[in-house]
């Protein structure tokens, strides 16, 4: 059940509270919320009939509205109140008794209120002909710290409602789905021209990938690089400042010199490899805490961890603010570089009600295939979504991995049940935190389910077995917007004559065919085929050929597939030491 919510619109008569409430109700119903509007005039006609306009009667009226609104919210609904509620003390009293209370101050100048007043009530009150008229002959105490302030004398109804919805989303009360901030081609010409006049910030592959994924909406509800408030809350609790789950900082990091150049700017352009790729609205500049962040995100401060090492080498300052991308991510696989909305469209065209996401950064093998097909027994479609952004130098090149995926899908999966698309993110190797991060990204791509193995996104021995699955226990049902499929260790059992897991196979360990990472490397280096129990022959041949080409090009430094393991799942596994046998989605 969704969390209940009370949106308390307060402001002078004629400010537009009822109009905003009606439009807001429509928008929230589109999002699937059950909404009740408690309009001040209607409440006085029914619930508060007989009450006058003394302070005591006004306070009683507000308490009644607050009581009913609280009942609606208590059952998971959204109550929108549109009443003047002039006195601060009783509004605060209702707030303290009502979870999920959001105060919206609908501000409007007296001059504009007089102009709008077709009945002439304000003019009569100003002439002293009407007593106890709020805002003229009776006080109106404006909120001191409302969650949201809109100005109906300066904004259209649509603008005010959009600002309210945006704030509600930032507070974690609603999620409006994937909303890209991407302006390509002619649509982005004006912004591209403006970018030519802005201060340019040169960024590396990580910041560039994050900026472009922000632009496509892949990191929704995050609209841009994190502000200091979001950064501190994510590091401290794994949630954005509004309470939404978000386990890993997405920060535009700069050194002292870079920050000094940006101070005083409201917008800057990001340039990567000679191309301006995005514009950032500078909302906040803050100092990061690498040591606290390392322990929070990676669970260690060890420099041997690739994520920790990268973090310590990054700038200590960060710039937060909305991002508008000027192009989509391009990974070198144009046929597969689909944005979240494009994947959602493909899902709809295939008429899949459910779709399971599979994260991988390793070549595919039997255990991967096994998990995918088990999931497809009950789910309409599979999104095979390999991460092709930057990984460790000893990982298998993306081109080789993509060739393996294509070969597997062409020969062993029904075409109408699988969609292959690239994930342009870079690998953080953050174990459990990255498992949640990957799940949220796949939710944005339209997945209803996501496969997580026992060591998803792991590296080395930094994360306990099953930690990547246990972390999901801390979230309420439905909170992530995606269902997690937790899979066990899988392997080829000679006695069973096929793939099995520790949950289904009764046979002894010696019946289980597994290959260590070391043995896989040895076989490939010797030009030998990998056993059919490990991977399909076509995949084994692709890996052998790729290894031979790499060795011929650079015999001294050629790397074999250090991260290939018998793991079932998405690309977890260290380059060194070798992966131990077992299922390790991630």
Provide a quick synopsis of the model:
The chain has helices spanning 17-30, 40-45, 55-74, 88-96, 110-116, 121-126, 157-170, 189-195, 205-216, 228-237, 256-262, 290-298, 306-313, 340-349, 366-376, 398-412, 431-444, 467-470, 517-525, 537-553, and strands at 5-10, 35-39, 78-82, 101-107, 148-151, 199-202, 224-225, 252-254, 267-272, 275-281, 284-287, 317-325, 355-360, 381-386, 418-420, 449-452, 483-486, 490-493, 498-501, 512-513.
How are the elements arranged and paired?
Elements: E1 5-10, H1 17-30, E2 35-39, H2 40-45, H3 55-74, E3 78-82, H4 88-96, E4 101-107, H5 110-116, H6 121-126, E5 148-151, H7 157-170, H8 189-195, E6 199-202, H9 205-216, E7 224-225, H10 228-237, E8 252-254, H11 256-262, E9 267-272, E10 275-281, E11 284-287, H12 290-298, H13 306-313, E12 317-325, H14 340-349, E13 355-360, H15 366-376, E14 381-386, H16 398-412, E15 418-420, H17 431-444, E16 449-452, H18 467-470, E17 483-486, E18 490-493, E19 498-501, E20 512-513, H19 517-525, H20 537-553
Parallel strand pairs: 1-3, 1-4, 2-3, 4-5, 6-9, 13-14, 13-16, 14-15, 16-17
Antiparallel strand pairs: 7-12, 8-12, 9-10, 10-12, 11-12, 18-19, 18-20
Helix pairs in contact: 1-7, 3-4, 12-13, 16-20
